Structure formats: C-alpha cells, structure tokens
UniProtKB/TrEMBL annotation:
The keyword Magnesium does not apply. The keyword Endoplasmic reticulum does not apply. Belongs to the cyclin family. Cyclin Y subfamily. It comes from Mycteria americana (Wood stork). This is Cyclin-like domain-containing protein. InterPro entries: Cyclin-like_dom (IPR013763), Cyclin-like_sf (IPR036915), Cyclin_N (IPR006671), Cyclin_Y (IPR012399). Residues 127-212 form the Cyclin-like domain. One of its GO terms (molecular function) is protein kinase binding. Keywords: Cyclin. It holds the Pfam family Cyclin_N.
C-alpha cells in the first residue's frame, strides 16, 4: 500500500467539509467536563492547585513544552489518558474485524477468551504507546496527530474503541501519523521489525482499511493541531499530570526564541517545496528499528 505524504494546510474548512458527521461527538474534550474536579473541595479549589507555581511580576514559570515542539513524555501521557477516557466512557462495543485482536493478534501469545471484558488502565496504554514511539523514534507531534486520526476513525467508521480493538486501532493511527507527519521515513516493515510477530501483509491490510474508513482524509489543519495541543494541556492540568515548571531565565528565553525561529523556517520550507514522498510496504528496504516487547 502506497501512501503519499500530504502537505498540511491551514484551512480548517477543508477538514470540516470532509465529514458530514459531528466530529466533536468523539472528541476527548467532552470527557473533561465529566471527569474534572471530582475530588475538589466545596469551594472548588483542587488540592493539587495549592502547591502549583504561579507567575508573578518578578518571576515567570514556564515548562519546556511548546505547541511547535511539545514535550514527548508528557504528550504521550496525555494522549494515552485521552485514549483511556475513550475506552472508559464508551456507550457500546461496536467494532470491525480488521481491528479485533482475537482475529488479528499482535503477538504469538494466545489472546484470553475474556479479553473483551477488561478495560486497560492508563499505565497499560501508556506502556504500549511509549514502547512503539521509543523503538520507532517518533516525535511528540506525531502523538498528537495519532489522537486526531484515532478520533476521526471513531467518528467516520461509527465504531468504539474497546478492550478487543484498542491496540490495533492505536497501532493503525500511529502507523498513519508517522508516515504523514514525521520527517523520518517509516515503513510498514519497520513496525514488523519492532513487533516481530505481526506480518507485513497484516500491516498493509490494516493500513488500507484505516485509510478507507477515514475516506482518505489525512489532512490536519494547523488550527486542529493547535486545538488538540491545548486541550491535552487542559487534560493534563485536570488530572494532575503537571509539566515541570521552571523560572524563565534569559538563556531559556533565547532557547525558546531559537526553537520558534527554527520551526518557522521548517514550515516555510515545507510550504514552498512540493514534498511528495511515497512509502510502500512492498519494498522491504527500510531503516532498522529497535525490537520491542509489548505487554
């Protein structure tokens, strides 16, 4: 299966017109209202906020995560927490055979008969995603786009992410996001080298179904990406997944300015050059990745 790398466009209208269904119906943002402040005091002050650092006129506290260069570890934690809430708050178990782990196992270990009854916890999901990102050397931006594609799939295909299919849905979203977003070429065979027990044919078939269910709408406008980034920041704050804050120094300010300038130049170059790289799973020549053991 050949997938061409698409250029990102800033026109959110292209994305909105591509779907006749309400995309927000499967957005993790809807779950924030249900879950946040459950343990608050009667005056709505969260215990976690009592020790939170706040900026003042003399000192500005800032973390090392920006919308153009998010912190990888924190972003993966937030994305997997959003996936956890999707599974936890689902209304049913609608699925498709291509994503069923019993029909298409990821490992040689036998899938338990009651595998569909037990929801994975956040740590389990985090370990699965972190293992793939570490072995494939993927970026934090790729994690955000992974969540975009995952939620888009749930909406377009009218399915739910549940215990029986969450690993293959997440894997498919990561596979697609790494091809579209990441600067480094990632082939289907690379994931077979990481997972070891999965075949190239299975990866090709899952990728084809994923793209067809998305109606080949892989465009992620800048406005959609930014919204997901800040919603994930809110999710982290509401669940005490705080980013490490440090006082803003002159050196850190210069570093952030340099990063912003570098990202601006990068996006300008991407918009000028008609980059159309193709990735084919039929060609088994690719970058060797690290082996991974999935639990």
């Amino acid at each position: 299966m050949i997938l061409q790398k698409r250029q990102y466009q800033g026109n959110v209208g292209l994305f909105l017109r591509a779907s006749k269904k309400p995309f927000s119906s499967h957005s993790f943002s809807l779950f924030l209202v249900r879950e946040k402040r459950k343990s608050n005091h009667i005056n709505h002050v969260s215990p976690g906020q009592l020790t939170k650092k706040y900026s003042s006129c003399s000192t500005i506290f800032i973390d090392d995560s920006t919308v153009s260069q998010p912190n990888l570890r924190s972003t993966i934690k937030c994305v997997t927490l959003a996936i956890f809430y999707h599974i936890k708050n689902r209304d049913s178990d609608r699925s498709l055979d291509i994503f069923d782990e019993k029909s298409h196992p990821l490992t040689r270990e036998e899938v338990p008969d009651d595998y569909y009854k037990h929801d994975p916890d956040h740590k389990h999901i985090y370990r699965f995603v972190r293992t793939l990102f570490s072995a494939a050397q993927l970026t934090a931006e790729c994690a955000i786009v992974t969540l975009v594609y995952l939620e888009r799939l749930l909406t377009y295909a009218e399915i739910d992410i549940c215990p029986s299919n969450w690993k293959r849905i997440v894997l498919g979203a990561i596979l697609l996001a790494s091809k579209v977003w990441d600067d480094q070429a990632v082939w289907n065979v690379d994931y077979c080298q990481i997972l070891k027990d999965i075949t190239v044919e299975d990866m090709n078939e899952m990728e084809r179904h994923f793209l067809e269910l998305l109606q080949f709408n892989i465009n992620v406008p800048a406005s959609v990406y930014a919204k997901y980034y800040f919603d994930l920041r809110s999710l982290a704050d509401d669940n005490n997944l705080s980013f490490l804050l440090e006082p803003l120094s002159k050196e850190r300010a210069q570093k952030l300015e340099a990063i912003s300038r570098l990202c601006e130049d990068k996006y300008k170059d991407l918009s000028k050059a008609a980059m159309r790289r193709s990735f084919s799973a039929d060609n088994l020549v690719g970058i060797r990745r690290s082996n991974a053991i999935l639990s």
